[in-house]
Task: structure prediction
Amino acid sequence: MTNLREYLDKTDCKNDLKELIELIAMQAVPIREAFIANQSYADTENASGEQQAALDVWSDEHITRILMESNLVCEIASEEKTDIVRNSEAKSNYAVVMDPLDGSSLIQVNLCVGTIIGIYDNGNALSRGRDLRAAMYMLYGPMTVLTLTVGDGVYIFALKDGEYTLMQGPVTMPEGQLYGSGGLKKDWTKEHEEYISEIENKGGKLRYSGSFVADFHQILKYGGVYCYPATKDNKDGKLRLVFEANPIGFIAKQAGGEISDGKQNLLEVLPEKPSHKTPIYVGSRNIIKNIENIFKKI
Ligand code: AHM
Ligand code: MG
Result:
């Protein structure tokens, strides 16, 4: 049985990066414990104008405090904050981007949610996804699971008695047929509608929970596509490039999958601002290529 530290020791990660990854991964413990006391919605909105859940706010403040105290990180960009937080006393050049609690509308119904993290080693949280040094998410489901890449394949760990043990890896995303799409059907664009009918006609199976990180985890294991498309009234979709698309896309790519906005590889896009929104198609490689072909035709 390999634990997280033993796995990291076999990679080319520097000691401070190993320390940072472990520190973040272990925050799954206090975050899980905070669920019961943080079931309600807060009276506040995040940088995208969405109402925050109490656990969004709690997780954001908690992880930010832990990272600031560690002095391992010089920049933190969070889905829950308008501005990037900087630490002038940091002793490393890591920048962390995070969605502290993704899928927060599901907290009150006890469905699977998670924490999404990306780490850059260039000190700049507004970098392209392809430049990530590491990406990971912790999933709060029946098990607490960590999915991690340090740029050398994707590995999945499970948390038990305060320790992460390697369950699977390197993970390869298969060419499956699961699909799920956000956005109201009446607002879908022609291109998106055409793709969804195509996958439905091919026998695709619908899987959409309302938690990107949980829906992606299924796609990672079984193959298929998660979509949050551009809609007629919202050409940039709903999800954010920096906190959601890039870390998840980097993991997808490391598992042999792809991420696109329908026209281009999202990992190549330079973020304009922390709350930069984008349509997202992420999943099995051939499915994403096919979606890009459909978008080119229409
Ligand atoms: P959140 O980060 O505030 O939870 O918002 C992002 C979530 C995704 O996890 C999920 O896929 C999507 O929003 C669901 O949106 P919708 O309810 O419009 O389908
Ligand atoms: Mg989110």
